Amino acid sequence: MPNITLSGVAKSYGGHDYAVRNLDLTIPDGAFMCLLGPSGCGKTTTLRMIAGLEQPSAGTIAVGDRILDSVEHGRYVPPEKRGMGLVFQNYALWPHLSIRENVEFGLRMRKVPGPERRARAEEALRMVHVDAAMDRYPSQLSGGQQQRVALARMLAINPEVLLLDEPLSNLDAQLRLEMRAELKRIHEESGATIVFVTHDQLEALTMATDIAVMNQGELQQLAAPMDMYDRPANRFVAEFVGSPPMAIVDTGPEPGGLAGSLLRHVAARAECVPAAVGIRPEALRFGPPPAGAWHEEATVEAVLPAGSSWTVRLRILDTDLYAVSYTPVDSAPGDTVTCWTERMHLFDADGARIAAWDEAGVAA
């Protein structure tokens, strides 16, 4: 399928309240695109407009040269003619039908002949590793298996685009981990374009080829997962993507304490004066600093072990920060340690990241 293109798309439910505003987004053929953002940011509305369940108030949605929605030209293609499959957060399986019959349901509605229908259903169930349960009923399957059946039902009709609206949010941690791996494998094997809505940054970072971060109906950044993590476009993306989130310190007109310490370090290495400085928790290290690295003494306030990592809350001058260590932390609350970092993110007064600092080697 060609690229899916949203041009100037907006959705209003009356008055001046826009769920989505002026959205320009291209979803490449074969991509695994995650729409990521907090509740109410417009990501599900965007997915529903792509599916045809909602009509935009302005703008155009097209697949290649084929226009699916255009307010200007009065064009609207209904959902069943878009060649897309939609999987909701709710599995929506028929309880009185077997797993095989549930997966065959869409094919039956399309009047696919019986032998072909059964073959495609069985192949889809094999793809999601539930073929051994095809003669059981939904009530006899776990939540994770039911979600796989819902995916198989969509895969059986061979959609060119698979639209997933937070399908993993009802699962426990172990099942979510398994389903993330399954979805990535299915994407690689099927080659289908997948658009996945989530508020969980870990889901987006681990599965997506591209992430579109949204906030208050507007696109904040579109990038590959690690590019977005390493080079967030603005303060919102920097604080939303990452756990614990990036610590951002406002420098202010007369900075003192930690803000002053950071600003003096940055000012000695570049001409620009940032309005804020951000540090990722894992970029904050302990011990003797290397030459040229920013450093300060800190008081340990809490050590939170998490098995493979340790999160440490620190008081540096007048500010509390979190650090993440992947080696055991010997310090205890009340201890004084030296903290340092060589990686900073700098932001201007409008919250945009100052990209020029990358080239200077000051910000990462």
Q: What this model shows, in words?
A:
It comes from Microtetraspora glauca. The chain is α+β, with helices and mostly antiparallel strands. Helices cover 28% and strands 30% of the residues. The chain folds into 2 domains: 4-232, Rossmann fold (3-Layer(aba) Sandwich); 247-360, Nucleic acid-binding proteins (OB fold (Dihydrolipoamide Acetyltransferase, E2P)), CATH 2.40.50. Strand 10 and strand 11 form a beta hairpin. It is globular and about 75 Å long.
Strand order of the largest sheet: 7-8-9-3-10-11
In round numbers, the mean pLDDT is 89
Order of helices and strands: EEEHEEEEHHHEHEHEEHHEHEEEEEEEH
Tell me how many strands there are: 19
The level-1 CATH class of the largest domain: Alpha Beta
Which shape, going by the Cα principal axes?
Answer: globular
Number of helices: 10
* Structural Rg: 24 Å
CATH level-4 homologous superfamily of the largest domain: P-loop containing nucleotide triphosphate hydrolases
Question: In terms of structural class, how would the helical and strand content be classed?
Answer: alpha+beta
Our measurement of the CA-to-CA distance between the termini, rounded to an integer number of angstroms, reads: 36 Å
What composes the largest sheet? 6 strands, mixed
Tell me the number of structural domains.
Answer: 2
| CATH fold group of the largest domain | Rossmann fold
Beta strand %: 25-35%
What are the low-pLDDT stretches, counting only 5+ consecutive residues below 50? none
Protein name: ABC transporter ATP-binding protein
Keywords: ATP-binding, Nucleotide-binding, Transport
GO molecular function, one term: ATP binding
Domain ABC transporter: 4-241
